[in-house]
Amino acid sequence: MGFFALLIAIALLFNRPGDWHPILTGLPLFQIAIIACLASSWGKCTNYLRSVSAEKTPVTICVLFLFGMVLVSSLANPTSSFEITIDFLKACVLYLLAVSLVDSPPKVSTFLNGIAISIFFVGLLMVLDYHTSLFGTVRPEGGGQEFRAEALGGKNFDANDTSALLVLAIIIFLANAIDAQSIVMRVLWIVTMAIACHGMQLANSRAGFIALLIGIGSYLWIRWGNKGLKWGVLLVPLGAAVIATDRMVDLSAIKTGTGQSRLQFWSIGLSLFFNNPIVGVGPGEYENQIGKACHNSFIQAYAELGCLGGALFVVAFFSSVKLSYLTRRKYTNDELADTQVPSAIFIIPALIIAYITSISTLNQVYACHTYLILGLSTIAASVFGLFDGEAQTPYRASLIASLGKTTCVFIVMMYVICLVFVRW
User: Fold this and answer.
1) 8-state DSSP, 294
2) Cα separations (Å) of 332 from 225, 325, 363, 376?
3) What residues make up the domain containing 237?
4) Residue 378 domain-assigned?
5) How far apart are the first and last CA of the chain?
6) Helix ranges, 150-250 (H)
7) Residue 172 in contact with residue 347, Cβ under 8 Å?
8) Is residue 43 situated within a structural domain?
9) pLDDT tier at 129 (50, 70, 90 boundaries)?
10) Residue 21, Ramachandran bin (φ over 0: left; ψ between -120 and 50: alpha; else beta)
11) Dist CA 307 CA 280 (whole Å)
């Protein structure tokens, strides 16, 4: 019951009925699904929380403390919107439900496919709207105006957010097509992947295109090593040539276009952090104070939540990559395993790497789907036995030391990038 409710909640997160028909507007269906899921899974969630530790569940520790920092920063900055704190609470609850309920290999597969299919319908509706004006979108005539489709009019996700999500679906569909046992299923997964790719074309996001290349390349390398990387070098550019638009491959934007403006927003975010290093300017206050979005979730976390909040967000993703990689390495080298290695072992780290690439130019610190992706590594480590037998710790140093080192390295790196590339 709880797992089924979780899948419904995920479907409602990405496809809100209120955006399809006005009569459904305002109905809190996602909140109802989350509450129902939590009520039916309370025991599993509390049992999971009792087992949390910095050694085995570092991502969960980071997420829990990050919520504390969001709350502290919100209280310390009365002008910030408390609604963002409430929204972030929903994201944390969704994370907790995912890591508590997805507790077996079949559920991992179903969970990944549930995410991919939910995102697919976002892309499908974009494609239908573009070709049939299903939701009233008017295409520019004459080809003189750049067209960028948004998910259901942008009420849920703008073009860049939509592209970041479609990248995740494409990677999952690609893996499913490779592993399909029948021609029918392989064709089905290829068709869904093609539709999602067309949705990416309509979103026309440069960052999404880069994330797709990095995500697919990561998947091929994680799965087949150097052999997969060689095939990727040969085949990925061919696929990219089919998907790519002029905007996606326009590298001049880093000097004069949107790429340069985003680098300037990064620099402003660093300035806000240096002026408010303890608790930041408050959740959502970057956009309120500057009038534009930060366009880098990691810098946004430092600017709005301060040193500890930013470090927790960055370390959560670093831990997620580390956990998923250790899980893949342990499982494939386990001589006692007598079953086929689940595809999820290879998909999950690729998804996390692709999403990190995407949110490096987006604002997704408080988004629910961010914490769904973060939870994948914790799920994989638990389900696929990373800590069975001899415990492996993602860090040689303590989590606190990792937070400090991460802050120093990240801030210096971003400062140097801004110093070199920003043109005022």
Assistant:
1) -
2) 12, 11, 35, 18
3) 2-15+58-137+148-331+341-384+397-421
4) yes
5) 55
6) 159-179, 183-203, 206-243
7) yes
8) no
9) confident
10) beta
11) 8
| CA dist., res. 280 & res. 294, Å (int) | 14
Instruction: Give the helix/strand (H/E) hosting 246.
Output: none
The reply to whether 23 falls in a domain is no
Rounded-to-integer distance, Cα 51 and Cα 417, Å = 40
Burial class (CB in 10 A: 0-12, 13-18, 19+), 359: buried
Q: Cα(257)–Cα(38) distance, rounded to whole angstroms? A: 45
What torsion, rounded to 10 degrees, do the Cα atoms 211, 215, 218, 220 define?
A: -140
Q: Which residue, chain included where needed, has tokens 């970057």?
A: 286
Residue-wise pLDDT for 11-68, tens only, equals 999 987 766 666 777 778 888 999 999 999 999 999 999 988 888 899 999 999 999 9
Phi-psi region of 225 (alpha: psi -120 to 50; beta: other; left: phi over 0): left
Residues 6+ apart with CB under 8 A from 386: 323, 326, 327, 330, 380, 392
181 neighbors 144 (Cβ within 8 angstroms):
no
Residues paired with residue 157 on neighbouring β-strands, in sequence order: 151
Residue with tokens 């944390």: 92
**pLDDT classification of 137: cutoffs 50, 70, 90:** low
Say if 44 falls within a structural domain. no
Residue 357 CB contacts under 8 Å (≥ 6 apart), including other chains: 207, 210, 211, 214, 215
Cα radius of gyration (the chain): 21
Q: Which of 19, 250, 254 is nearest to 134 (CA)?
A: 19
pTM: 0.92
Token duo for residue 166 = 């479609």
pLDDT band at 337 (very low <50, low <70, confident <90, very high): very low
- Write out the DSSP string of 2-34: HHHHHHHHHHHHHS-GGGT-GGGTT--HHHHHH
d(CA 212, CA 37): 32
Task: List phi, psi (to 5°) of 151.
Answer: -65, 115
| Domain count within the chain | 1
Assess contact for 356 and 168: CB atoms under 8 A: no
Tokens 């520019």 correspond to 140
